[in-house]
Amino acid sequence: MNALEDFKAIDIQHIDVRGQNPLTDLIVVASGSSLRHIKSMADNLILNAIEAGCPPIGIVGDRQSEWVLVDLNDIIVHL
Q: What's the first-to-final CA gap in the chain, in angstroms?
C-alpha cells in the first residue's frame, strides 16, 4: 500500500479476512483530509495497480470522492 503512504493517507488499517470472506483476502481502510486528497489517493492507487499489471475490477464513488472503494480482487480498499 505504498501508493497510499506516498500520498499521505491518514490512519491506514489492514484487516486480514482470509478464510472469513469468500470475496477478498485483505481489506484496507484509510482516510484523507479532504475530498481532493481522497480523489488523488484513489487515482494514485488505481494508476499504480494498472502499472503493476493488476487493474481494478471495480471502482465505486470516484466521482464524488467522499468515499471511494477500489476492488483489486484479493484486496479491497476503502478511502
A: 12
Vertex 16: Cα angle to 65 and 69 (nearest 5):
15
> Hey, how many other C-beta atoms are within 10 angstroms of the C-beta on 71?
15
Interior angle at CA 8, CA 40 and CA 18, nearest 5: 90
Question: pTM, whole model, 2 decimals?
Answer: 0.87
Nearest to 60, CA basis, from 77, 37, 36, 41:
77
Count the neighbouring beta carbons within 10 Å of the beta carbon of residue 2. Answer: 9
* Structure confidence by residue, pLDDT tens digits, 11-69: 999 999 998 988 899 999 999 999 889 999 999 999 999 999 999 999 998 777 689 99
* CB atoms inside a 10 Å sphere around CB 64: 10
